[in-house]
Structures are given as structure tokens and as C-alpha cells.
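Quick review question:
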């Protein structure tokens, strides 16, 4: 089955490259931001438009966040929590135009969270508030757009990233080399030793985070991305967790056709995973193929998507950033043998007082085997997200997000229906 997915992926990637036409890609200014679909292959950010001295360009930014999450389950215990915290971000200027120091402290403190309703991932288990120095790194720029970064840092790569869906993101300890590339060829490579997960204040080894107890292995990775001047992009990245598993990810995205005010965009991505070395979390070989079409027309866009996962094993994503166009608020729809469909729509309401109002909704249906070792409940997830982004006056850096998801699972295989509701408020203060 995995071999069949590999063949289909290569054929579809080739067709997107051949039939992409030279029109600009749609820019929605961050609208429809779905953090569960983080599949960008981003090179290392080492360049500033304005370069100043170490102290002159030093910045300190306070980024408060409050987050309320309630999960009301039909049979299992409910989960509920309300947190206050955020981040304090320091960044120096470039010393001798070559060195930059950066650090970020994160905190999540409990405003409300009964012990019998734990499990929101807003806090440490307990629930218990926490504070962590999640980032502390040094970047050395050895040319205008190439550099190397060492220390605690964030990554935004497929299956290796911050997955910033709670109060505090995943952060990592490692070294990375890369370049700045808005267009043309971008690259990134490196080694990650440890991860601090989103609901913890300790860094642990990557292999331990993947489920290999009493191990101390890291992750090697290398990726490239090429963005054409007229919109389309292609890319791929390979990751290896020594003695645990490998991940290969490929993607191709771009405009397919434009007529009048309508534009059709195509998206395709493929994941291949297999155990390696001592196979510390088990011997497996699996794959995921995901495709999406999106039609944009002024303030409205419509989308359909499909994904299929090999029936031998589900996709492993212990380091964040699941990469599937059907990953939505609650579920990723990448279980063993799962075939899933998505239909969705977005609408930009435009200016509302001091900001911009937009909304998007998705319905995803996932079918899995009804019998055998990989049997699991079929399910349907109904999602809606409403965003208000401040754009002027006191609200210029305000972002309010309200999200709701209802998950309907097949009770015949032990499914459990539930309602997930979230309110997230973000703000930025530049202290200096």
C-alpha cells in the first residue's frame, strides 16, 4: 500500500508542476490561519531590512495571551481550563553585522482549572502553571542571506515545529543552518537534540518525546524549497530520529487557473515514514497522501480536500506541526487506513470598526477499518472559527479568535462524541 502511495504522489506532483500557470498566488493576509496544517518548509530567517548596531536595534516585546478551552464529552470526563500568560521576547541588533542574540520566556498560569477536569494541555498535568526559558540562541550571519543558529529556538517545519495551538509553543535545542529566500531556492539543515513540549517546562531528548523510553537520540534534518516568481512552489524535507524513525515530506502548491475575479489553486503533499535502526517505537512503514483544491472569488473562498493514510500504521508526529490539509481544530485524520474528505469555506467581512473580521468553517469525514488491529471509530468533525484582527488605534496588535468543533464518532467501535470550544486573545506590546 505504501508503494502505491509513492507512485501516485510522484505522478500528481509532476502534474502540478507541469500545469501551474504564471499568475500570482492568493494572499489572504493571514486569514484562515489553521495551525494544524503547518506544512511550510521555511528557510532560516537571518536578514533584516534595516541593520543597526547591537544596542541600537535591541527590542523587548511583551506578548500576553489568554486562552479558554472547554471540551464537553458525552461519556468520558470533561476537560476545562482558563490560562493567562504569554511570552517576553528579547532580540538584540546585529553586532558587527554578524551576530544576534535572542531569548524568549514563556509562561502559562492557571486562572481556572479544576483537577478533575485536567487534560486541556494549557498547563502541566495537575493542572499546574509553569514558566520556561523556551528560546535562547545566537545567530551568526556569514553572508547577507545565509546564517547559522545555535541554542534553544523555534522551528516551523513539517513534523518539526512549534505547533502553537495552546498557551506555549514547542521549542527545541539544536543547531540549524539556512538562508533567506522569499523567492528562488531556500534551504535549511541541522540537528535537534531536545524538545520542550507545549505543556511542559523541561527539555527532553527527541527520541524520548517520540516514545522511546530511556533513550537520548536526536533528529537530523535537511530540506529545500523553490518558490517561483509567478507563484508556484515545490519543496521537500527529510528527518531522521536515530534508532527510531525517518520522515520524508514532499509538497507542491500553486495557482492552477485564473479567470476574471476567480482563481483556482492546487495543493499536494506526501509523507513517507518508516522505522530505522533499532526501531525503538516499533517496526513500521507508512505513508500519507493529501490534496486540496481552493477556489477564491473576492472575499469568499471554497475548498475541498482528500487524504489517505496507509493501513499499516498511523502517521507519527511527536515533534509538532502535523502536515495534512485535513488537520483541523481537534483531529488530524491520519490514523492507520484512514480515508478522509473535507469541504470548507471562508469569508472576509472586511473592516469592522478598528479591525478586520473573518470566518471559516470545515466539515471533515474520516473512515477507518472496522476490524483488525487498526480498527478505530469513523468520525465527522464540524468546525467554525471567527477571527477579529485589530488594525489601528488601541487594537492595532490585537487578535481575538473564537473556535468551536463538534466531533461525532461511531459509537459501535467505542467512539465518544464531544464539543470543543475555545477563546484565544493575543496582544503585543513593544517595550523598547
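Suggested answer, residue by residue:
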Amino acid at each position: 500500500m505504501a508503494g502505491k502511495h509513492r507512485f501516485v504522489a510522484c505522478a500528481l506532483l509532476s502534474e502540478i508542476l507541469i500545469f501551474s500557470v504564471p499568475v500570482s498566488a492568493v494572499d489572504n493576509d493571514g486569514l484562515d490561519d489553521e495551525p494544524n496544517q503547518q506544512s511550510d518548509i521555511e528557510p532560516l530567517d537571518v536578514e533584516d531590512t534595516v541593520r543597526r548596531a547591537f544596542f541600537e536595534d535591541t527590542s523587548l516585546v511583551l506578548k500576553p495571551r489568554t486562552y479558554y478551552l472547554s471540551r464537553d464529552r458525552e461519556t468520558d470526563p470533561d476537560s476545562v481550563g482558563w490560562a493567562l500568560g504569554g511570552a517576553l521576547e528579547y532580540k538584540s541588533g546585529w553586532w558587527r553585522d554578524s551576530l544576534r542574540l535572542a531569548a524568549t520566556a514563556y509562561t502559562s498560569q492557571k486562572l481556572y482549572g479544576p483537577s478533575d477536569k485536567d487534560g486541556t494541555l494549557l498547563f502541566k498535568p495537575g493542572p499546574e502553571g509553569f514558566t520556561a526559558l523556551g528560546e535562547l540562541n545566537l545567530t551568526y550571519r556569514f553572508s547577507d542571506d545565509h546564517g547559522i543558529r545555535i541554542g534553544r529556538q523555534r522551528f516551523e517545519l513539517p513534523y518539526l515545529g512549534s505547533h502553537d495551538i495552546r498557551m506555549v509553543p514547542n521549542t527545541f535545542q539544536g543547531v540549524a543552518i539556512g538562508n533567506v529566500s522569499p523567492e528562488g531556492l531556500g534551504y535549511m539543515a541541522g540537528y535537534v537534540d531536545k524538545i520542550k513540549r507545549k505543556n511542559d517546562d523541561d527539555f527532553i531528548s527527541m527520541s524520548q518525546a517520540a516514545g522511546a523510553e530511556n533513550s537520548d537520540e536526536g533528529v537530523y534534518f535537511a530540506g529545500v524549497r523553490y518558490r517561483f516568481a509567478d507563484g508556484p512552489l515545490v519543496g521537500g524535507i527529510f528527518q531522521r530520529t536515530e534508532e527510531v524513525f525517518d520522515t520524508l515530506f514532499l509538497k507542491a502548491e500553486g495557482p492552477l487557473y485564473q479567470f476574471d475575479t476567480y482563481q483556482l489553486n492546487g495543493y499536494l503533499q506526501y509523507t513517507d515514514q518508516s522505522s530505522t535502526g533499532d526501531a525503538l517505537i516499533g517496526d513500521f512503514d507508512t505513508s500519507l497522501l493529501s490534496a486540496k483544491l481552493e477556489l477564491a472569488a473576492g472575499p469568499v473562498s471554497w475548498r475541498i480536500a482528500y487524504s489517505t493514510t496507509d493501513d499499516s500504521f498511523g502517521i507519527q508526529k511527536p515533534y509538532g506541526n502535523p502536515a495534512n490539509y485535513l488537520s483541523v481544530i481537534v483531529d488530524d485524520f491520519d490514523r492507520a487506513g484512514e480515508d478522509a474528505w473535507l469541504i470548507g469555506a471562508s469569508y472576509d467581512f472586511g473592516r469592522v470598526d478598528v479591525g478586520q473580521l473573518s470566518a471559516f468553517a470545515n466539515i471533515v469525514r474520516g473512515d477507518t477499518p472496522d476490524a483488525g488491529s487498526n480498527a478505530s471509530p469513523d468520525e465527522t468533525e464540524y468546525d467554525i472559527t471567527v477571527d477579529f484582527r485589530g488594525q489601528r488605534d488601541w487594537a492595532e496588535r490585537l487578535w481575538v479568535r473564537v473556535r468551536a468543533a463538534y466531533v461525532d464518532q461511531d459509537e459501535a467501535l467505542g467512539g465518544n462524541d464531544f464539543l470543543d470550544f475555545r477563546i484565544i486573545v493575543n496582544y503585543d506590546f513593544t517595550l523598547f
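Why it works: Residues 4-30 have pLDDT under 50 and may be disordered. The longest helix spans residues 2-19.
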